[in-house]
Write the structure tokens for this entry.
Amino acid sequence: MQSFYSEQQKILQQTAREFSIAELAPKAHEIDEKELFPIDQFKGLANLGLTGLTLDSEFGGSGGEYVDMMVVIEEIASVCGSTSTILITHVSLGSQTISRFGNFDQKTKWLPLLSTGKKIAAFSLSEPQNGSDALGLNTKISKHDTNSYLLNGSKIFTTNGEVADVFVVFCTSDKEAGYKGISALIVDKNTKGLSVIPQHGKLGMRGSSTAEIIFDNCIIPVENRIKDEGDGYSIALQILDSSRIMIAAQCVGLAQGAMNAALDYSKQRRTFNKPISQHQSISFMLADMATELDAARLMTWRAAKRHDEGLTYSKEAAMAKLFSSEVCGRVVDKALQIHGGTGYFKPSIVERMYRDQRVTEIYEGTSEIQRLVISRAILK
Ligand SMILES: Cc1cc2nc3c(=O)[nH]c(=O)nc-3n(C[C@H](O)[C@H](O)[C@H](O)COP(=O)(O)OP(=O)(O)OC[C@H]3O[C@@H](n4cnc5c(N)ncnc54)[C@H](O)[C@@H]3O)c2cc1C
């Protein structure tokens, strides 16, 4: 238990840990192997109120702070990376956009369903030609009539895409206007002209669904627009800033899971008449892993705490995501090394975590984009 967590957060941590061990761990290998969305586990998270964590409690959300969410994500990721990706996308990207920026009617319609996990949210920003460069969106809206837009275009890599009931979609009404032309829409999956094409074959996080979403002359009511026309870019950046804290927490969790496995294995595996933990090269690896992991957790906690205290946190969130994802890479690599040949084979947890880690340096802004955010902040 971390001393910087409150008593309430320690209870939340214990609840999330018990659920993860009992409900997620037994399925983690299978959902990875077969690329299965863990719907029963998602419902289990909903029963604990975790699908509504940080969401506006006046509209059915569970409330709570980002440090609370960090605690939960860390526990889940330490056992099952895929489930943590699903929850982060549902809560911190899709639902949080509606919770933070939606109007009364939008929140009334969607938040009770999303918070209770009866509906699943996704966040569709990336396109085939634009990932890091979100300004270059090609998905287009034009006026259909006074009450609706026509939405055309396609999105790729949408997490939860196959199972989502609602998509927060970023699109442009005027490409020439740059960020001023970008808007955010709430799009129901049952919208005529919307189709979902699953994207299979991921290296890791294979239990999380990823899909291409096609919009072919979809008619979207104007009332589904979040805030004003032209506000979409700012909404996307703000949501990515805060959600990055959760990716950092995910990395801390993944690294902790790999570290736990390495600690256990190093004590039981014997070579040259002693446990490998008693070979200095192994114990020093463990020392480095523990040290870096501690630093990553502290940076993540600082970013979450700044968010919760209403302070600026964009730079700290980018630093936490950059550092934690790269630390996680080093930790899972060492954990696999400590497992020797066993770690290279399924169903070893470190084999899975080694693969799951890689995308944390890519999604919600690559490491290069985090460095861009940080360097801009310090060179101001
Ligand atoms: C499993 C998975 C799930 C995802 N889920 C979602 C989701 O739910 N919703 C969503 O909208 N997107 C999602 N994404 C997309 C993800 O956010 C993008 O892949 C990411 O932002 C990078 O964009 P890109 O793949 O187009 O790479 P590119 O932007 O083409 O970048 C390619 C390379 O160039 C580098 N680069 C680009 N621009 C610069 C620059 N200015 N300076 C230095 N280097 C640069 C990048 O860092 C990278 O190394 C997901 C991706 C994956 C793999």
Remarks:
- Strands lie at 121-124, 140-145, 148-159, 166-172, 182-188, 194-198, 210-221, 225-226, 270-271, 274-275.
- Residues 232-268 form the longest helix (37 residues).
